[in-house]
Amino acid sequence: MSATYLARKAALKQRVRLLYRRSLKDTLNWAVHRHLFYGDADDLRNKFEANKHVEDLETIDRMIAVGEATYNKWRHPDPYIVPWAPGGTKFCRNPVPPAGIEIVYDYGREDND
Amino acid sequence: MAGIVRRAVLGHMRAPVVQKSLSLHGSKKLLHNPIFFRSMSSHGDDHLTKQEVIDRVLSVIKDFPKVDPSKVTADVHFQKDLGLDSLDNVELVMALEEEFKLEIPDLEADKIDSCKVAIEYIYNHPMAG
Fold first, then answer.
1. HSE-CB of A40 using CA atoms within 13 angstroms
2. Distance (Å) from the C-alpha of residue B119 to the closest C-alpha of chain A?
Protein backbone atom coordinates (compact mmCIF):
# COMPACT_ATOMS: atom_id res chain seq x y z
CA MET A 1 0.00 0.00 0.00
CA SER A 2 1.99 2.95 -1.26
CA ALA A 3 1.40 6.46 -0.07
CA THR A 4 0.19 7.68 -3.44
CA TYR A 5 -2.33 4.84 -3.61
CA LEU A 6 -3.70 5.73 -0.20
CA ALA A 7 -3.73 9.42 -1.04
CA ARG A 8 -5.64 8.77 -4.24
CA LYS A 9 -8.06 6.51 -2.46
CA ALA A 10 -8.69 9.10 0.25
CA ALA A 11 -9.30 11.75 -2.39
CA LEU A 12 -11.75 9.47 -4.18
CA LYS A 13 -13.55 8.75 -0.91
CA GLN A 14 -13.92 12.44 -0.28
CA ARG A 15 -15.31 12.96 -3.77
CA VAL A 16 -17.85 10.21 -3.15
CA ARG A 17 -18.94 11.79 0.12
CA LEU A 18 -19.30 15.23 -1.43
CA LEU A 19 -21.21 13.79 -4.38
CA TYR A 20 -23.55 11.94 -2.04
CA ARG A 21 -24.14 15.05 0.03
CA ARG A 22 -24.88 17.26 -2.95
CA SER A 23 -27.12 14.73 -4.65
CA LEU A 24 -29.02 14.13 -1.40
CA LYS A 25 -29.66 17.86 -1.04
CA ASP A 26 -30.72 18.00 -4.64
CA THR A 27 -33.12 15.10 -4.08
CA LEU A 28 -34.65 17.09 -1.26
CA ASN A 29 -34.99 20.09 -3.55
CA TRP A 30 -36.84 18.11 -6.16
CA ALA A 31 -38.96 15.96 -3.82
CA VAL A 32 -40.20 18.57 -1.40
CA HIS A 33 -42.62 16.34 0.48
CA ARG A 34 -40.91 14.15 3.01
CA HIS A 35 -42.69 10.91 2.16
CA LEU A 36 -41.54 11.26 -1.43
CA PHE A 37 -38.07 12.31 -0.34
CA TYR A 38 -37.52 9.23 1.81
CA GLY A 39 -38.26 6.94 -1.14
CA ASP A 40 -35.95 8.87 -3.46
CA ALA A 41 -33.22 9.04 -0.83
CA ASP A 42 -33.38 5.28 -0.39
CA ASP A 43 -33.04 4.79 -4.15
CA LEU A 44 -30.02 7.08 -4.21
CA ARG A 45 -28.43 5.26 -1.31
CA ASN A 46 -28.96 1.89 -2.99
CA LYS A 47 -27.28 3.17 -6.13
CA PHE A 48 -24.24 4.13 -4.07
CA GLU A 49 -24.29 0.88 -2.11
CA ALA A 50 -24.40 -1.24 -5.26
CA ASN A 51 -20.95 -0.02 -6.28
CA LYS A 52 -19.50 -0.14 -2.80
CA HIS A 53 -17.09 -3.02 -3.28
CA VAL A 54 -15.29 -1.88 -6.40
CA GLU A 55 -11.53 -2.00 -5.83
CA ASP A 56 -9.96 -0.65 -8.98
CA LEU A 57 -9.19 3.07 -8.67
CA GLU A 58 -9.67 3.82 -12.37
CA THR A 59 -13.16 2.32 -12.37
CA ILE A 60 -14.05 4.22 -9.24
CA ASP A 61 -12.78 7.41 -10.82
CA ARG A 62 -14.89 6.84 -13.93
CA MET A 63 -17.98 6.03 -11.88
CA ILE A 64 -17.58 9.18 -9.83
CA ALA A 65 -17.24 11.22 -13.03
CA VAL A 66 -20.45 9.67 -14.37
CA GLY A 67 -22.15 10.39 -11.06
CA GLU A 68 -21.05 14.00 -11.08
CA ALA A 69 -22.28 14.41 -14.67
CA THR A 70 -25.67 13.01 -13.67
CA TYR A 71 -25.74 15.34 -10.70
CA ASN A 72 -24.95 18.35 -12.88
CA LYS A 73 -27.68 17.35 -15.28
CA TRP A 74 -30.27 17.04 -12.51
CA ARG A 75 -29.43 20.14 -10.46
CA HIS A 76 -32.49 22.03 -9.31
CA PRO A 77 -32.84 25.55 -10.81
CA ASP A 78 -34.17 27.02 -7.57
CA PRO A 79 -32.61 25.14 -4.67
CA TYR A 80 -33.58 25.75 -1.11
CA ILE A 81 -30.82 27.66 0.62
CA VAL A 82 -31.06 28.78 4.22
CA PRO A 83 -32.09 32.48 4.14
CA TRP A 84 -29.02 34.01 5.75
CA ALA A 85 -26.57 32.01 3.63
CA PRO A 86 -25.18 33.30 0.31
CA GLY A 87 -27.86 32.69 -2.29
CA GLY A 88 -30.65 32.83 0.26
CA THR A 89 -33.34 35.46 0.43
CA LYS A 90 -32.15 37.21 3.58
CA PHE A 91 -28.50 37.38 2.61
CA CYS A 92 -27.16 40.97 2.81
CA ARG A 93 -30.70 42.19 3.37
CA ASN A 94 -30.08 44.32 6.46
CA PRO A 95 -26.36 44.86 6.76
CA VAL A 96 -25.01 46.53 9.86
CA PRO A 97 -24.65 50.26 9.11
CA PRO A 98 -21.04 51.43 8.89
CA ALA A 99 -19.52 52.90 12.02
CA GLY A 100 -19.70 56.64 12.45
CA ILE A 101 -22.93 57.13 10.54
CA GLU A 102 -25.74 58.32 12.77
CA ILE A 103 -29.04 60.09 12.59
CA VAL A 104 -28.83 63.76 13.54
CA TYR A 105 -31.95 64.73 15.45
CA ASP A 106 -32.39 68.30 14.41
CA TYR A 107 -35.64 68.27 12.46
CA GLY A 108 -36.97 71.81 12.12
CA ARG A 109 -33.98 73.43 13.74
CA GLU A 110 -32.67 76.29 11.66
CA ASP A 111 -29.06 77.32 11.42
CA ASN A 112 -29.34 80.37 13.62
CA ASP A 113 -31.25 78.67 16.46
CA MET B 1 -45.19 84.87 9.52
CA ALA B 2 -46.05 81.25 8.83
CA GLY B 3 -42.38 80.37 9.07
CA ILE B 4 -42.09 81.86 12.56
CA VAL B 5 -45.19 80.02 13.74
CA ARG B 6 -43.90 76.82 12.21
CA ARG B 7 -40.57 77.21 13.90
CA ALA B 8 -42.15 77.93 17.26
CA VAL B 9 -44.49 74.97 17.01
CA LEU B 10 -41.76 72.62 15.91
CA GLY B 11 -39.48 73.89 18.61
CA HIS B 12 -42.00 72.84 21.22
CA MET B 13 -42.74 69.51 19.62
CA ARG B 14 -39.21 68.18 19.34
CA ALA B 15 -39.04 64.40 19.97
CA PRO B 16 -36.63 63.54 22.78
CA VAL B 17 -33.73 61.17 22.11
CA VAL B 18 -34.20 58.22 24.47
CA GLN B 19 -30.97 57.35 26.20
CA LYS B 20 -31.36 53.75 27.23
CA SER B 21 -28.84 52.39 29.65
CA LEU B 22 -28.01 48.94 28.34
CA SER B 23 -26.44 46.44 30.67
CA LEU B 24 -24.38 43.82 28.90
CA HIS B 25 -25.04 40.77 31.00
CA GLY B 26 -24.29 37.88 28.68
CA SER B 27 -26.13 39.39 25.72
CA LYS B 28 -23.56 39.91 23.04
CA LYS B 29 -25.74 41.49 20.40
CA LEU B 30 -26.51 44.86 22.01
CA LEU B 31 -24.02 47.59 21.27
CA HIS B 32 -23.28 50.43 23.65
CA ASN B 33 -24.66 53.07 21.31
CA PRO B 34 -28.48 53.18 21.70
CA ILE B 35 -28.90 54.46 18.15
CA PHE B 36 -27.83 51.03 16.82
CA PHE B 37 -30.19 49.12 19.11
CA ARG B 38 -32.90 47.86 16.78
CA SER B 39 -35.47 46.56 19.18
CA MET B 40 -37.83 44.94 16.67
CA SER B 41 -35.23 43.27 14.48
CA SER B 42 -34.90 39.53 14.80
CA HIS B 43 -31.46 39.54 13.23
CA GLY B 44 -29.04 37.11 14.87
CA ASP B 45 -31.52 36.46 17.61
CA ASP B 46 -30.76 34.15 20.44
CA HIS B 47 -27.54 32.28 20.94
CA LEU B 48 -28.10 28.74 22.12
CA THR B 49 -26.70 27.56 25.40
CA LYS B 50 -24.23 24.71 25.31
CA GLN B 51 -26.59 22.37 27.13
CA GLU B 52 -29.38 23.06 24.65
CA VAL B 53 -27.05 22.35 21.76
CA ILE B 54 -25.93 19.08 23.37
CA ASP B 55 -29.51 17.99 24.05
CA ARG B 56 -30.70 18.70 20.55
CA VAL B 57 -27.71 17.08 18.87
CA LEU B 58 -28.11 13.95 20.98
CA SER B 59 -31.82 13.75 20.23
CA VAL B 60 -31.13 14.03 16.48
CA ILE B 61 -28.55 11.25 16.66
CA LYS B 62 -30.81 9.03 18.74
CA ASP B 63 -33.65 9.44 16.26
CA PHE B 64 -31.44 8.39 13.38
CA PRO B 65 -32.77 4.99 12.25
CA LYS B 66 -29.40 3.29 11.85
CA VAL B 67 -28.20 4.18 15.34
CA ASP B 68 -28.71 2.29 18.57
CA PRO B 69 -29.97 4.99 20.99
CA SER B 70 -28.48 3.40 24.11
CA LYS B 71 -24.93 3.85 22.82
CA VAL B 72 -25.22 7.56 22.21
CA THR B 73 -23.31 9.83 24.58
CA ALA B 74 -21.87 13.27 24.13
CA ASP B 75 -18.49 12.10 22.85
CA VAL B 76 -19.21 9.25 20.49
CA HIS B 77 -17.40 9.02 17.21
CA PHE B 78 -19.92 8.33 14.47
CA GLN B 79 -17.98 5.79 12.51
CA LYS B 80 -15.89 4.18 15.24
CA ASP B 81 -18.31 4.00 18.17
CA LEU B 82 -21.68 3.89 16.47
CA GLY B 83 -20.59 1.72 13.57
CA LEU B 84 -21.91 4.04 10.89
CA ASP B 85 -20.80 4.24 7.29
CA SER B 86 -19.24 7.33 5.75
CA LEU B 87 -22.44 7.89 3.77
CA ASP B 88 -24.41 7.54 7.02
CA ASN B 89 -22.14 10.22 8.42
CA VAL B 90 -23.14 12.49 5.52
CA GLU B 91 -26.81 11.81 6.22
CA LEU B 92 -26.35 12.54 9.91
CA VAL B 93 -24.65 15.86 9.21
CA MET B 94 -27.52 16.77 6.90
CA ALA B 95 -29.99 15.92 9.66
CA LEU B 96 -28.09 18.20 12.03
CA GLU B 97 -28.13 20.96 9.42
CA GLU B 98 -31.88 20.67 9.16
CA GLU B 99 -32.35 20.63 12.92
CA PHE B 100 -30.40 23.82 13.51
CA LYS B 101 -31.33 25.54 10.23
CA LEU B 102 -27.68 25.88 9.31
CA GLU B 103 -25.96 25.86 5.98
CA ILE B 104 -22.61 24.14 6.47
CA PRO B 105 -20.14 24.38 3.56
CA ASP B 106 -19.36 21.02 1.97
CA LEU B 107 -15.75 20.81 3.05
CA GLU B 108 -16.56 21.75 6.64
CA ALA B 109 -19.35 19.20 6.74
CA ASP B 110 -16.93 16.55 5.60
CA LYS B 111 -14.82 17.09 8.72
CA ILE B 112 -17.68 16.61 11.18
CA ASP B 113 -17.37 13.01 12.17
CA SER B 114 -17.94 12.84 15.88
CA CYS B 115 -20.46 14.17 18.36
CA LYS B 116 -17.95 16.45 20.04
CA VAL B 117 -16.91 18.13 16.78
CA ALA B 118 -20.56 18.60 15.84
CA ILE B 119 -21.43 20.21 19.18
CA GLU B 120 -18.40 22.52 19.01
CA TYR B 121 -19.18 23.57 15.45
CA ILE B 122 -22.85 24.25 16.10
CA TYR B 123 -22.19 26.06 19.35
CA ASN B 124 -19.65 28.34 17.72
CA HIS B 125 -21.80 29.02 14.69
CA PRO B 126 -23.34 32.52 14.93
CA MET B 127 -26.55 31.62 13.12
CA ALA B 128 -27.39 28.36 14.87
CA GLY B 129 -31.18 28.21 15.24
1. 16
2. 20
Kindly state whether B127 is in contact with chain A, defined as any CB-CB distance less than 8 angstroms: yes
B87:A45 CB<8 A: yes
Residue range A13-49, pLDDT digits in tens: 999 999 999 999 999 999 989 999 999 999 999 999 9
Query: Could you tell me if residue A66 is inside a domain?
Result: yes
pLDDT tens digit sequence for B13-63? 666 655 554 444 444 554 555 566 777 777 656 678 889 899 999 999 999
Residues spanned by the domain of A21:
3-74
Looking at this predicted complex, what is its ipTM? 0.81
Q: Which of B11, B38, B7 shows the shortest CA–CA distance to B22?
A: B38
In total, the C-beta contacts within 8 angstroms joining chain A to chain B are 58
Q: How many domains does chain A have?
A: 1
Whether residue A79 lies inside any domain: the answer is no
**What whole-number distance in Å separates Cα of residue A37 and Cα of residue A22?**
14
pTM for this predicted structure: 0.73
**How close B102 comes to chain A (CA, Å)?**
7
At CA B5, angle to CA B1 and CA B10, rounded to 5?
Answer: 145
Chain B residues touching residue A101 (CB < 8 angstroms):
none
